Amino acid sequence: MKIHYPNGQPFHYNNDKSESRKKQKQVKYSNRGMTLEKELNLTNQQYLNENLAVIHKKPTPIQVVKVDYPRRSAAKITEAYYRRSSTTDYNGVYKGYYLDFEAKETKNKSSFPLNNFHEHQIQHMQQSCAHGGICFTIVRFSSLNEIYLLEAEFLFKWWDQQFLEDGRKSIPLASIKNECAQIPYGYNPRIPYLQVIDQLIEEKNSK
Amino acid sequence: MKIHYPNGQPFHYNNDKSESRKKQKQVKYSNRGMTLEKELNLTNQQYLNENLAVIHKKPTPIQVVKVDYPRRSAAKITEAYYRRSSTTDYNGVYKGYYLDFEAKETKNKSSFPLNNFHEHQIQHMQQSCAHGGICFTIVRFSSLNEIYLLEAEFLFKWWDQQFLEDGRKSIPLASIKNECAQIPYGYNPRIPYLQVIDQLIEEKNSK
Questions:
Q1: How far is the alpha carbon of A31 from chain B, nearest alpha carbon, in Å?
Q2: A92: which chain B residues are within 8 Å (Cβ-Cβ)?
Q3: H or E element: which one contains A161?
Q4: CA-CA distance, A109 to A97, in Å (whole number)?
Q5: pLDDT for res B49
Q6: Residue in A63, A79, A98, A101 to test binding to B, most B beta-carbons within 10 Å
Q7: Treating both helix axes as pointing N-terminal to C-terminal, what angle do B119-130 and B152-161 enclose, rounded to 10 degrees?
Q8: In 3-state terms, what secondary structure has residue B51?
Q9: Secondary structure (H, E, C), A12-81
């Protein structure tokens, strides 16, 4: 007899604990990403409505393998796989500046693990910075419900030190509190990060 | 007996000629898009390699409906649909400027049909321009093998006039030749469009 979970998904016996734990972890990560992503999408929509900035999330890259063309209906993709993105998730234009950023969530309460990033994302931010873009990361500590904006330079510094002997694999929250701006929750926009960008632009221009 | 084409696709009798013609047309359009897209991707990669600019094509937006998680292998998407993009296809940063553009191909020999654009793409370019971005369209006349860079302002002018009485539904090639820069084919990069952007930036700064 096939047993199904209440959500209709079939139940599989799985004795491979590590595999199962890994899968659970993956699911959790993607859920966490969703929430911040949704709030940022609403924020960006609000910025667009107010005619303040044009920032969009890039679509998730998907490798399409098989497509069906049912008659009189939309093309149906029947086999496809997620691909790793070669850039960050968000970019756009604000006050003539190119903005480029990544959004990350962590349940960690005392530090932000650097393995939230892939090498190529850091590289992409380094390249974008080098050409005059404003790059940063929005990090939510979901257990604390606190959001910070990490400037790219700050992130690069921590990224690089991890490869040194005794390098830390995470950024302590204390350092983030000390050197980065906290983004207060708003009603609309919910994550008013452009306030922080305004400061960055001011600093940039006063240099 | 089931008949198959040499490529393994089953053959279907189809008396609905208009449907069949429509499908053929769709296939052709997407093939045409591919070629220019590939050349632009190579061009952008070359610009990245030369550390000149960071421009990427955005992934095609896909609505994922069903995903299988086979044990010990990558998540497999088993039902998904193409969505209409809410932006243009390419963006990035060059000399501190936000660049945003769309690439289009036409087999037409004397004009560029405006129905190659969706209203929302024009709107996105208008918004990006308003915030200081440099927006444009790269058009290939594939039968003539000529490529032009249409500045956003030029495109907007033609887009708007189509809604007037006796408005044209396409931009005459003569007007494009007259008011837009042709991009000469290169070896590497193949479509050296940043040459034209340099001129636009110069004009922008001399205003």
A1: 15
A2: 91, 98, 128
A3: helix A152-161
A4: 33
A5: 97
A6: A98
A7: 140
A8: coil
A9: CCCCCHHHHHHHHHHHHHHHHHHHHHHHHHHHHHHHHHCCCCEEEECCCCEEEEEEECCCCCCCEEEEEE
On the question of pLDDT at B20 being above 60, the answer is: no
Answer whether B80 sits within 8 Å of A80, measured CB to CB: yes
Complete edge-to-edge strand list for the sheet that includes strand A76-82: A62-68, A76-82, B76-82, B62-68
Contacts of A64 in chain B (CB under 8 A): 62, 80
The ipTM is 0.81
User: Is residue A67's pLDDT more than 60?
Assistant: yes
Task: Reply yes or no on whether the pLDDT at B13 is more than 80.
Answer: no
What digits encode the pLDDT tens for the residues B55-81? Answer: 999 999 999 999 999 888 889 999 999
d(CA B118, CA A106): 39
Query: Which of A44, A51, A77, A134 to mutate against chain B (most B CBs within 10 Å)?
Result: A77
- The Cβ-side half-sphere exposure at A14, using a 13 Å CA radius, reads 15
Q: B110 vs chain A: nearest CA distance in angstroms?
A: 32
Q: Express each pLDDT in B153-166 by its tens digit.
A: 999 999 999 999 99
Instruction: Write out chain A residues lying below 8 Å of B53, CB-based.
Output: 131
Q: If we measure between CA atoms, which residue out of A154, A141, A135 comes closest to residue A193? A: A135
Chain B residues inside the 8 Å CB shell of A96: 97-98, 131-133
Provide the 10 A C-beta neighbour count for residue B102.
Answer: 24
Q: Which of A115, A113, A90 has the alpha carbon at shortest distance from A37?
A: A90
To test the contact with chain B by mutation, choose from A25, A54, A101, A205 the residue with the greatest count of B C-beta atoms within 10 A, namely A54
DSSP bridge partners of B151: B136
Asked if pLDDT for residue A133 goes beyond 50, the answer is yes
Nearest CA among A142, A140, A134, A138 for reference residue A202: A134
Q: A14-33 pLDDT, tens per residue?
A: 444 444 444 444 444 433 44
